[in-house]
Amino acid sequence: MSCRLLPAVIAMVLCCTSLLAQSSGLVMTTSGELAYAANDPPYRAYASLTGRADDPSRVHTDLFAPIIATHDDLLFADVRGQFLYGGGAEGNLGLAYRHMFGGSHIAGVYGFYDVKESKNENTFNQATLGVECLSDVWEMRWNGYLPEGGSAQAANATAVISAGNLVVQNNVERAYFGTDAEIGVLLWRLPTWCDTELRGFAGGFHFDTNSPAATSIAGPRLRAEVRSFDLPFLAMDSRLTVGLQYQHDNVRESQTSATFGVRMPFGFDRNRRRKMTRMERRMTDAIVRDVDVVSEVTPVPGGKEMAQHAKYDFEIGSVTVVDARTEDLQTVVANATTDSVIINGTYGEIRLSDPIEVQDGQQLLGGGLPVKGAVTGVEAIFGSPVRLVGTDPARAVILTADHSVISGFDIHGGLHGISSDLPGGLDNLVDVLIFSNNVTGADDSGFRFGELDIDSVIAHNRATGNGGHGFDVELNEGEFVQNNALGNEGNGFDLFDNHGTVSLNRSLRNEGFGFFADDNSGDFNYNESYENELSGFDFLDNNGSIVGNLSADNGLQGYTFAANNDLVEDNWAFDNGSLGFDFDDNNGTIQDNLAFDNGDVGFDFADNYGDFLDNVASGNGLYGFSFNDNFGNFLRNGADSNDDTGFDFVENAIGGTFSDNVANDNGSFGYDGVNNGTANNNTGSGNGDGGNTFP
């Protein structure tokens, strides 16, 4: 129950317990316990607990407390609370009066004050008034419900199709005023077993609210109850009730619920001298009313906004919706003239032997689509997530085209999950946006494209367990952002030539390289590569920016460069099987990188013609730094605690500067090489075989 409702219900229970002690025949003993007075009260207080399998399911508690009681007249309090699975709670405080006529008929009136906190965290107050007429066989009742106020802002908007367009509908949650009535009859009785009886009820309800955008709620209600009394395994005046209810209306549609409830009286059986008669039991029947304040989320008049994608801000526009029931789905997609086609997963996965061919300029979107209102930015979800299964290992599942958007699919199987691999060869793509897709189990690469132009974006996708590479692109000039490649048989990312931006991607446990680029002249920044069987990052020729990447626990090198002609900065390599950083030649700038605990050398390169600045090699299995010749600037680098030599090289050549480096606590020499250039202020200590300074 809500923290705001719980204190109120506790207070009501305590109040009624006090009334019970004063007026229903209970007295307080000197030991502080409740006991019956000498006179046997006509009606005892009871508490009941009822579980209700419904939508949503709930648990009811009910306290019945006589205030003034004679055999024919009963004034009592009825305190109720309910707790809803999935959120929401309600408390009801009622006062009722019943009078028995001639021992055969009962008339009653009652009123309740209701407080509800809905699952949308809105609070509603309501008055309930009712009348009833009971006999041993027949009964009838009527209730009226009068909420205070009538509306509050709902927690969530909804995404709906209006006039062919996807819109975000702003809503309010409203409490409905209304009425219900029913008539009941005794259908069957078995006096020999706890006086068990079966009663049936038929009635109807009608609820409405003062909003032109709201729909009234009206329909029939049928229910049945089996009741057993004075259960031997409980106590006299106990009651077991099992019920089944069905109702239908045009808003909530068909609803079926089952109940199981146990009632236990207060007091001690030794002071109870007789069982109640059947009509006396009827005097203590639970008041029947709607189980809670009726509230529904209703549209705000004029509250529709055009839907945009919640993250990427493009307008969804006019839509065609297809699902597993759609015949010849590929043809429907290909012939769609709307801005977007949404494949909804409500009716299960979709198996495809032929590809879905996205058309030029088309937006192909999966269900569970996150959208927002173009004006207010309020967010909503349309449809359910969908799984596409490609059954032909020689054909892709989705084929893309220029100016297209593909998002929101869980794809399994096929040759590729999403591809531009057409029968005539790989298509080059212009201005595509492919994001938030998951591809697993493709026979070849998960994502396969020719050239991606500067306006193309591949983002937030995942490629797992595919037969080739996770992502396979001939030439990238666009953006690869926050994609993940896991457990693929080839490379995680195979970007043969990269002239674009590759950032914040992750490659994990692939059988090839984590990231491979034959030629990089773009930005390769803040990516992570773990536990791949070959190297974490492999560049044949780097003419771009390699910044802030992390490579760890890979089978071979952390980073491999056939040649570096640009910037390699702030990268980490640790726990790789062989080298941390491996360069053939450096003609660029390598600075502020860290290599530690790699199996072999921290930094290994043939010759330095550029700048090698402020790098640190620590705890590597062989050398910290190993190279042939330095013809450039080798400044302020640090080597400590490596198993062999800190700096191992042939010579600092003519024209080279080797200065301000530090070598500490290496297993062999701090420095081991020849100086033919400029070298000064190279220091160290604690190296196993000396060589603490250079030259």
The span between the termini is: 77 Å
Rounded average pLDDT? 90
Return the structural class.
mainly beta
Shape: elongated
Number of helices: 3
* Helix fraction by DSSP (H/I, runs of at least 4): under 10%
Number of E strands: 67
Low-confidence stretches: 1-38
State the major sheet. Answer: 16 strands, parallel
Spatially, the strands of the biggest sheet line up as 19-20-23-28-33-36-39-42-45-48-51-54-57-60-63-66
Radius of gyration: 38 Å
Strand content: over 45%
Structure explained in plain terms:
With 695 residues, the protein is mostly beta strands. It contains 3 helices and 67 strands. The strands form 7 sheets. Strands 19-20-23-28-33-36-39-42-45-48-51-54-57-60-63-66 form a 16-stranded parallel beta sheet, covered by helices on one side. It is elongated and about 125 Å long. The protein starts with 5 loop residues before the first helix and ends in a 10-residue tail after the last strand. Residues 1-38 have low confidence and may be disordered.
Helices and strands in order:
Layout: H1 6-23, E1 26-28, E2 34-36, E3 46-53, E4 58-69, E5 73-84, E6 89-101, E7 105-117, E8 123-135, E9 138-147, E10 151-153, E11 158-162, E12 165-175, E13 177-190, E14 196-208, E15 217-229, E16 239-249, E17 253-265, H2 278-283, E18 295-309, E19 319-322, H3 329-335, E20 340-343, E21 350-352, E22 356-357, E23 363-366, E24 369-373, E25 379-382, E26 386-390, E27 398-399, E28 405-407, E29 409-413, E30 418-419, E31 421-422, E32 425-426, E33 433-435, E34 438-440, E35 447-452, E36 457-459, E37 462-464, E38 471-476, E39 479-481, E40 484-486, E41 493-498, E42 501-503, E43 506-508, E44 515-520, E45 523-525, E46 528-530, E47 537-542, E48 545-547, E49 550-552, E50 559-564, E51 567-569, E52 572-574, E53 581-586, E54 589-591, E55 594-596, E56 603-608, E57 611-613, E58 616-618, E59 625-630, E60 633-635, E61 638-640, E62 647-652, E63 657-659, E64 662-664, E65 671-675, E66 678-680, E67 683-685
Parallel strand pairs: 19-20, 20-23, 21-26, 22-27, 23-28, 26-29, 27-30, 28-33, 29-34, 30-35, 33-36, 34-37, 35-38, 36-39, 37-40, 38-41, 39-42, 40-43, 41-44, 42-45, 43-46, 44-47, 45-48, 46-49, 47-50, 48-51, 49-52, 50-53, 51-54, 52-55, 53-56, 54-57, 55-58, 56-59, 57-60, 58-61, 59-62, 60-63, 61-64, 62-65, ...
Antiparallel strand pairs: 1-2, 3-4, 3-17, 4-5, 5-6, 6-7, 7-8, 8-9, 9-13, 10-12, 11-12, 12-18, 13-14, 14-15, 15-16, 16-17, 18-24, 24-25, 31-32
